[in-house]
Amino acid sequence: MSDNENKMGVMPVGRLLVTMSVPMMCSMLVQALYNIVDSIFVARIEEDALTAVSMAFPLQSLMFAIGIGMGVGVNAMLSKSLGEKDFDLVNKSATNGIFLSVVNYIIFLIIGLTLIEPFYRGQTTNENIVQYGVTYLTICMTLSFGVFAQIIFERLLQSTGKTIYNMITQGTGAIVNLIFDPILIFGLFGVPKMGIAGAAIATVIGQIVAGALALFFNLKVNNEITISFKGFKPDVSVIKRIYSVGLPSIIMQSIGSLMVYGMNKILAGFSTTAVAVFGVYFKLQSFVFMPIFGLNNGMVPIVAYNYGAEKKLRMVRTIKLATVFAMGIMIFGLLVFEIFPGPLFTLFSASDNMLSMGKPALRIIAIHFPIAAYCIVIGSVFQSLGNGVYSMINSIMRQIVVLLPAAYLLSLTGNVNNVWWSFPIAEVMSATMTTIFLIKINKDIISKIPDGVL
Fold first, then answer.
1. pLDDT at position 224
2. By the 8 A CB rule, do 230 and 62 touch?
3. Max CA pair span of the chain
4. Is residue 395's pLDDT more than 90?
């Protein structure tokens, strides 16, 4: 196979990054819109329901961390194998990735059947919130096969540069979710009113539809990968290589789950409203961060492919452009959060108490957005070059060593507004470590790659 058979090795870098990233960014924006609208519907049940969904985030985030982290490993290995023209390894990466997705679902099925109530009681003594949360999260966990199918099959499409199909699958799943949300929550068109259970069921339906559609696209249009389980046996060497890249990503994102759980505990010391404010922030910030993740999803296979093909100039150009684009998005997000915090919170049927607490929260936390853009893009570069451990170390330092202790110490002042400053403080540390690791990886890896053709 020659280079002209895959655009990642020959298309002009600027156009390639836009072509690869924009569909992913659009699909991520749709997903972020769903996250916000979903919570808007839940908030109309009552504030306790919104708090319950906010408290569900750590376990849901852990589920996505394990699925997406494994997908990152498959993505980097598969794209690099394409660049090296090792098509046997391409197919082994895909089939072993699908196998691991099945294993992941079984793990969360067990969690959904056994650990949800203890998880909620570890965060709150409010029985109403516990009951809402157990209902919502049990459904999301036990029927999570859709989300794991969606993650792996979208990653396979992404690995070969077919990101337009990711936009279709994610967009379709989110739209299905949005349609079913009000119908199932409020009992429209003769459907029984299900409340928070309806929100969970709508979420699961959207994930299943997206996963099935992603599988269909892989079978029909992803000709560079052959998915066959005839005589399949798990390949330990391939799985090790997948997790050598993916495990740091899993740990890094799992640390985020632990951070949110810890923040919920700290904020619960003030009020359940403080926890709801934090949950709303996470929903709103997804509208800013999700496009960055979409940009990264387009960037990673380009960097990995050209790393395998030994084309340094294309790699470096891709990294620089992605950083500039990410900074632009984050600056826009910063301005929105600083200028319109009140209107943003009123979307969630915010009480006067939530509104007075939420406005300063958004303005303080958003200060770190531009710095985070740099850290996120460069962290993904580490992963695409097989050095995800750098991102893992950075994430642990930022969220566990700095952010949570800072939040706890600031909470001792008795003013919840001071707690939000832990985010900018932690991000400054993260940017410092990111720069140190970038200098090292440039010396050890990037500078030794031949320039290649731009």
1. 78
2. no
3. 65
4. no
